[in-house]
Amino acid sequence: MKDATALPRSLLVLGGTSEIALATARRLIARRTRTVWLAGRPCVALENAAGSLRALGADVHTLAFDALDPESHEAVLGKVFAEGPVDLVLLAFGILGDQAHDERDPARAVQVARTNYTGAVSAGLVTGRALQNQGHGSLVVLSAAAAERARRTDFIYGSSKAGLDAFAQGLGDALHGTGAHVMVVRPGFVRTRRTAGRPRTPFATTPEAVATAIELGLRRGAETVWVPGGLRWVMAALRHTPRAVHRRLAP
């Protein structure tokens, strides 16, 4: 039976303009969530996102947060937890980069890695410890199906997500038994504004579908969620495909 009490009353979003994160926030507000913190770089889009959630009846705050400034994470995120318990942290920031350009420009490639992995390690450790200290709460980490095996066409992004995925799994093991819980979400290609114009791949999904999967995963207390669910078996097969064969597969 689905348990509504598994859903959060308070939500901290790291990456407050993410379409997946906002779809998830809307869904959770419709269920149980009443307080939302949207953390991200100050911009019009962040304020507009906050306004759209306030219109749904939530008490919404914005927070200046920069994934690329890990030295600030403990102080910035600590302010949120000082206001009261946080039931759910959604780690949703990240960049796709542009493989064709980034592999010829190491500085741009490093920017992808710093955002998707280094920044997430810092934010994940800070929020994971805070959830542990309060004795309850979930950290949901948006990984990607690309984390399972790097492809020629996205190995910079894919490798950054592979590092994030491994980190999140390890953090979940470290927090097991403390009352804090980590759930890794691995969607396939998600149709959003930032992926517009990119070739679609099989098992493409939407922010709303990912939000639905996150809700169901929270209700079940899941540790790993694939979106769509069948992608799990496809990626398991690709993961064990001989490398010579994998090179010849369509990207």
From TrEMBL:
InterPro entries: NAD(P)-bd_dom_sf (IPR036291), Sc_DH/Rdtase_CS (IPR020904), SDR_fam (IPR002347). Transmembrane segments: none annotated. GO terms for molecular function: oxidoreductase activity. Pfam families: adh_short (PF00106). Coiled coil: none annotated. The keyword Transferase does not apply. This is Short-chain dehydrogenase.
